[in-house]
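User: Predict the full complex structure for these chains.
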Amino acid sequence: AQKVTQAQTEISVVEKEDVTLDCVYETRDTTYYLFWYKQPPSGELVFLIRRNSFDEQNEISGRYSWNFQKSTSSFNFTITASQVVDSAVYFCFLEGYNQGGKLIFGQGTELSVKP
Amino acid sequence: DAGVTQSPTHLIKTRGQQVTLRCSPKSGHDTVSWYQQALGQGPQFIFQYYEEEERQRGNFPDRFSGHQFPNYSSELNVNALLLGDSALYLCASRSLREQETQYFGPGTRLLVL
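Assistant: Here is the predicted structure of the two-chain assembly.
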């Protein structure tokens, strides 16, 4: 079975704090992609990052960084020095390739950054 | 370069009615996927179209059907609407040949009364 778990339903931080959003996945596929999307109140899902199952290199993009660990089936997302504009719902997403290409979102983590 | 567009933006229907939602993919994309997102939930995959054929399908009843046209645009049809069909319907497009990331449209908010 394929599953994506985002255990943190809501997180509230004060501006400039660092925050980490957790994502744990289950899949029997050996080839898969993991994604993070941001959904602001407008509703449109904004692509943040994609990693494939063969590339465990961590990535940093400005204030955003991602930690992919196959050993623990986790793909965590850290925002450094959070800003009010980071307030949104963040989704982790799994796309499997070996069993017909299953597409599964986590339940989302609502991040609230207060000034 | 226009991104993924969807129409209409909002829609109100009554139980038992039928609805058609439309999606135009990003230029250069050949694959369209549809998702249903209920309030407070993550999007749920409905189905995906490639080369005018349904390539794969999630756990949705036959009341949900779709179509892809030669210009790669797509429609989602829902028959015999239920109150529980009220949701944000998201369309995403990608280039399957290029194995690109999928990009999402702004969605259509459907309210069933």
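Chain A touches chain B at residues 4, 35, 37, 42-47, 50, 91, 100-108 (CB under 8 Å).
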